[in-house]
Amino acid sequence: MNHVLIVDDEAEIRTSLESILSEEGYTVTTAATAGEALELIRDADYGVVLLDIWLPDKDGLETLGEIRRVEGAPEVVIISGHGTIEAAVRATKLGAYDFLEKPLSLDRTLIVLKNAMKARQMRDDNQEFARQLAVKGPVTGQSVPMKALRQQIKLMAPTNGRVLIFGESGTGKELIGRAMHAESLRKDRVFVELNCAAIPEDYIESELFGYRNSAVPGGPAEKRGTFERADGGTLFLDEVGDMSLKTQAKVLRALDEQRFLPVGASHPVHVDVRVIAATNKDLEEEIARGNFREDLFYRLNVIPFYVPPLRDRKEDIPLLVKEFLQEFGAQYGRPRVEMSEEALGALKQYHWPGNVRELRNLVERVLILNPKANRIEKKHLPMLVYRESPKNAVRGEEFATLLEAREAYERDYILKKLDECHGNVTRAAEGLGLERSHLYRKMKTLGVSVKE
Ligand SMILES: Nc1ncnc2c1ncn2[C@@H]1O[C@H](COP(=O)(O)OP(=O)(O)OP(=O)(O)O)[C@@H](O)[C@H]1O
């Protein structure tokens, strides 16, 4: 974050400040009027605005108010002339970061600007923290591999070493990445996540490294990439095996040099980032196939972590269920809900292709679809029972007749839709393209219910 906007109607001040600040490594844009400045601020991500309080087209305090209303607003430092100090003081009470008096002292300008940038960075970090709080939880599990993983996290977290986490989808790789960050020396800084598979190839470079002077007409002129946002903290690169070879080459360089060139920029940006990467692919196999760079693999894989699938640590299921029942019980106003031993036994029979994520979703669904049950019994887990009975299993196994196969698929699909719609049959019917009454009839035939 080093973009400064200078707003002053005196051309001389604009030019001299621009050249000094550019030399200090800031990216500088200038504007002569409040109108022009507001337009620029709505378009790009500035760290700090140096705002002359006296502008020809608008009152300085009013301009300050408008800037502060822009989402992700920059810090504002007021520049005041001789007769406007009182207004500048008032501006700081209204949320300006500080003020500078004309004629500007170079030292003071640089110090105030540096501090204002830092304040803006901290505001960004705090917003990231707030987002993180919503998703953070403990790494639960008493199985031998989970205990070992927790120990490994404790040991490796403070080392700053790069970590590569392997494991099937839904096993908890991101959770482990976050736990690692929470126990590291960077815990007071940001944790930024980027899912490399979710971003189209054309955008991934600008997502990672940001851009200056967007090529998209009407688009924001500047964007900070994930590397830059993670400065000082941890960058979690999820599904790292899905990056193209071209992007891999750029990431490799950024890791080696701890600096990179945003798209369209003329100066590199230096960062201090710890990278934790995760993948559900066999990267060694991807290397053999020529899809993943070996040098990047070794750079990322300083400390390898392996998270086993849930089917290989079924002893963790009761504890996980307890945690999810607590979480969703509190959310849906049913704090005392529990699960019978028999139901837990049924869950242990299942092979959990979606791992812990699937278990968590199932617990939530069962709670929603059985609003009166204070104790979840085996009969409340129909889908699993169908899946695990070889005759009815939806995936792969054999069905006696086509009708049976179709019903199993339909049942599964309807349950999924009902789950997405939190048990609301009308909305599920809309989503399925059926009349509500038709869906009810189908549910009855298939033995699907949303009530006790
Ligand atoms: N050991 C665990 N204890 C508690 N919750 C867990 C555990 N493992 C996973 N979860 C929960 O399961 C869900 C999926 O976990 P997470 O997103 O970390 O998996 P992932 O391996 O990163 O998945 P993907 O590869 O699909 O991104 C999350 O809601 C997470 O909180």
Chain-wise SSE layout:
Layout: E1 3-7, H1 11-23, E2 27-31, H2 34-43, E3 48-52, H3 60-69, E4 75-80, H4 85-93, E5 98-101, H5 106-133, H6 144-156, E6 163-166, H7 173-182, E7 191-195, H8 201-209, E8 211-212, E9 222-223, H9 226-229, E10 234-238, H10 245-257, E11 259-260, E12 269-270, E13 274-279, H11 283-288, H12 294-300, E14 303-306, H13 317-331, E15 338-339, H14 341-349, H15 355-369, E16 375-376, H16 382-388, H17 402-420, H18 425-432, H19 436-446
Parallel strand pairs: 1-2, 1-3, 3-4, 4-5, 6-13, 6-14, 7-10, 10-13, 15-16
Antiparallel strand pairs: 8-9, 11-12
Helix pairs in contact: 2-3, 13-15, 17-18, 18-19
The structure holds adenosine-5'-triphosphate.
Residues 137, 139-141, 167, 169-175, 238, 278, 280, 320, 323, 356-357, 360 line the site of adenosine-5'-triphosphate (ATP).
